Structure formats: structure tokens, C-alpha cells
């Protein structure tokens, strides 16, 4: 008796195609780690709910004279707000993998008359700074874009001074790190939670390096 292949009707074909698109879309949503495209920079100037400048102040508490590191400044929405609070005796280092973002921040800083911002092009997984160089460090909607966020957190621990502060802001987009995962990664890196504000889909959390801790490998 000849074998016949089962026939697939048009509705089943549409369902299969939709399933394939959904799988591909899901893989992209969860797997893509490309940095935020500079071409879409205008969206970065929008303050996100629960991640506003005032809320960042509440959690980061920048003070005059401090040296602070911002990783992934994008177009400088937070940089232009934090740098003036550090005063002439303080300094904000902004570090990004994309030179276009850094150039953009520095153009805006110049227009605002800010001369205490220093740009560095580098990857957050290998920070080109000595141990204990910073009083505080922050990343807003940037940690999830870094391919190995645990390595970036370990580097944060290294470059923070004893008693330093690390603030992470995350928002529900395709690079989102849910708070539970962040808390686990922070724990592995040797950071303990100070405070957390916001909502499950948009939060700011402050961590501190645990005294005399060596990261688990
Ligand atoms: C979504 S933008 C956030 C910009 C800004 N913090 C804001 O909230 O508007 C993420 C930024 O992280 C930077 N970035 C991505 N991967 C990075 C890495 N491995 N090291 C340093 N910066 C990185 C991107 O270039 C981009 O500027």
C-alpha cells in the first residue's frame, strides 16, 4: 500500500508559520545583546516611570566632591542630572562601548556648561580603572544589555571604594533583568542589598560591597 504524506491545510500552514515567527521573536527578545542603537537615541530622552531623576537621587544620593561612574549613559539623560550635584571638586566618569553615545553626552555637557564629566570608551566587563576608585557607580537600563552582567557586577565591586554604592535601574524591555535575578547575581558578586524602590517592571536598587568578601568563581 503506497505511503501518503498527511496533507496540511491552509489554516495549519498559517498556524505553523505564526508559531515559527513567535519562536524566532522570543529567541530575539531573550537572546539579543546588541547595544541600544544610536539611531534610536531620541527614545532615551524620555524619563521612564519609576526611573525618574528624582528617584535616582533618592537611591544614589550623589554628594559634592564624589567621584562617580556611570556605565551605559546613552545620550546622557542621567549624566546631565548627576554631574552638577558632584560640584567642581567631584567628577562623573561616563563609560560606554559606543563612542557615538559618549560624543553625544559630551556635546550636551558642553552646552550645559558642565566640565566635570570624563568619557571612557570601554566594556563594562573590563573596567579600565584601579581598585577602589569610585564612591558610587550606577547603570540605568544598561546592565541587561551587557552580555555577562555578573562580570560587570564583579567589576563594580572591584572599582568601588569600601562602603561604596552601586545603583542598578531596570525597566521591562527586551534586555530586562528581573529583580530576583539581579539579586542573585549581586549576591554572587559579593554585593548586599541596601534599598529597592519602584515596581516589579521598573525598579532602582542600591547595593553595597560586602566587607572582606572574595567573589565565588
Ligand atoms: C538603553 S541604553 C541606556 C541609556 C541611559 N542609561 C538611559 O537610561 O537613557 C544602554 C546603554 O548601555 C550601553 N552598553 C551596552 N553594552 C555595554 C557594555 N558591554 N559596556 C558598556 N556599555 C554598554 C549602550 O551603548 C547604551 O548606551
From TrEMBL:
Transmembrane portions of the chain: 12-31
Pfam families listed in its UniProt record: Methyltransf_25 (PF13649)
Q: Which CDD domains match?
A: AdoMet_MTases (cd02440)
Keyword Protein transport applies: no
Q: Where is the Methyltransferase domain?
A: 68-164
The protein in question is named: Methyltransferase domain-containing protein
Could you name the domain of life of the organism this protein comes from?
Bacteria
- What InterPro entries does its record include? Methyltransf_25, SAM-dependent_MTases_sf
Q: Which key words are in the record? A: Membrane, Methyltransferase, Transferase, Transmembrane, Transmembrane helix
Q: What is the lineage of its organism?
A: Bacteria, Bacillati, Actinomycetota, Actinomycetes, Kitasatosporales
Amino acid at each position: 500500500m503506497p505511503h501518503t504524506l498527511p496533507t496540511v491545510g491552509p489554516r495549519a500552514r498559517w498556524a505553523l508559520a505564526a508559531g515559527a515567527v513567535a519562536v524566532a521573536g522570543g529567541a530575539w527578545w531573550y537572546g539579543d545583546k546588541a547595544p541600544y542603537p544610536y539611531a534610536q537615541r531620541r527614545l532615551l530622552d524620555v524619563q521612564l516611570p519609576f526611573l525618574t531623576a528624582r528617584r535616582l537621587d533618592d537611591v544614589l544620593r550623589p554628594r559634592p566632591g564624589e567621584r562617580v561612574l556611570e556605565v551605559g549613559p546613552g545620550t546622557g539623560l542621567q549624566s546631565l542630572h548627576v554631574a552638577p550635584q558632584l560640584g567642581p571638586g567631584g567628577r562623573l566618569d561616563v563609560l560606554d562601548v559606543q563612542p557615538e553615545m559618549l560624543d553625544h553626552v559630551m556635546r550636551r555637557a558642553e552646552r550645559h556648561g558642565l566640565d566635570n564629566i570624563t568619557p571612557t570608551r570601554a566594556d563594562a566587563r573590563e573596567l579600565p580603572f584601579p581598585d577602589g576608585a569610585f564612591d558610587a557607580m550606577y547603570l540605568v537600563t544598561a546592565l541587561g544589555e551587557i552580555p555577562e552582567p555578573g562580570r560587570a557586577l564583579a567589576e563594580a565591586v572591584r572599582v568601588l571604594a569600601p562602603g561604596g554604592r552601586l545603583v542598578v535601574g531596570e525597566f521591562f524591555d527586551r534586555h530586562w533583568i528581573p529583580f530576583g535575578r539581579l539579586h542573585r547575581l549581586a549576591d554572587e558578586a559579593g554585593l548586599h542589598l541596601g534599598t529597592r524602590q519602584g515596581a516589579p517592571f521598573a525598579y532602582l536598587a542600591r547595593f553595597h560591597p560586602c566587607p572582606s568578601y572574595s567573589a565565588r568563581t
